[in-house]
Amino acid sequence: MSVLVFDLDGTLVSSMEDLVVTLNVVMTAAGHSAIPQDDVAHMVGMGAKVLIQRGLEFNGVDWTDADIEPLFEHFLEHYAANIAVHTRPFVGVVTALEAFRKDGWKLAVCTNKAERLTLPLLTELDLSQYFDAVVGGDTFSVSKPDAEPVHGAISRAGGTVTGSIMIGDSVTDINAARNAGIPVIAVDFGYTPVPVEQLGPDRIISHFDELAGAVAALADTPPRTS
Ligand SMILES: O=C(O)COP(=O)(O)O
Ligand SMILES: [Mg+2]
User: Fold this and answer.
1) Residue 192 in contact with ligand 1 by CB distance below 6 A
2) Based on the domain organization, do 94 and 70 belong to the same domain?
3) Per-residue confidence of the chain (226 residues) as pLDDT tens digits?
4) Sign of the CA dihedral 194, 47, 188, 132?
5) Which ligand is nearest to the CA of 23?
6) 45 C-alpha vs ligand 1 centroid, how far in Å?
7) In CATH, what number is assigned to the domain containing residue 38?
8) For a designed S-S bond to 143, which of 67, 69, 121, 137 qualifies (C-beta 3.0 to 4.6 A apart)?
């Protein structure tokens, strides 16, 4: 049984505005400057702790692990309370997920967002029902681009690595898919400092309407491992 493994932020959902609001609440409360959204878009994809670290570096602040913890706690508290103010599924997501399920695909989420944020966000947006498994950045001891969360998502969804496909928006997802030994489709509307064209995904889509065609084209392609 094959699994479509979806990244979350920048792939299934447009979450940038809510992430920026929370990051800037945290930054300004700690006495640092707010960061413009276009710059934050280059910092998302490795979870909230890395987002905070990159935000501090953007503000020229030297940080230690001890500095990050209270900011992370503040981030979790504020983001959990404001998780879907602006965040919505990208256009065509629900139609595509329904069609894939009808066609017999298992579906999973594999995100670097913490599990305790990921599950409520999916519920809030009425997306939980479509997924056989949800893996967050802290579900396993390692996160994407490591292969383990991708393999974990596939096995928790009841599927096999062979035939499964990753869909993501950043270098982290593309490398995670490569490490996991599965093909990867990149969306070109997500959050990445490097255009996905330069990252060598197996296919690129610009709208969820194009996903079925890309999946069909890859379904019988042997996996690349480099
Ligand atoms: O950085 C994050 O919060 C998670 O991002 P992802 O869903 O793109 O893995
Ligand atoms: Mg992403």
Assistant:
1) no
2) no
3) 899 999 999 999 999 999 999 999 999 999 999 999 999 999 999 999 999 999 999 999 999 999 999 999 999 999 999 999 999 999 999 999 999 999 999 999 999 999 999 999 999 999 999 999 999 999 999 999 999 999 999 999 999 999 999 999 999 999 999 999 999 999 999 999 899 999 999 999 999 999 999 999 998 665 554 4
4) positive
5) 1
6) 4
7) 1.10.150.240
8) 137
Note whether residue 36 is domain-resident: yes
Residue 170 sits in the same domain as residue 75? no
What ipTM does the predicted assembly reach? 0.95
Counts for the chain of helices (H) and strands (E), in that order: 9, 8
Residue 38 designated active-site: no
What's the CA gap between 60 and 54, in Å, rounded?
10
Could you tell me the distance, in angstroms and rounded to a whole number, from the CA of residue 132 to the centre of ligand 2? 19
Instruction: For ligand 1, say whether the CB of 173 is within 6 Å of any of its atoms.
Output: no
Ligand nearest to the CA of 110: 1
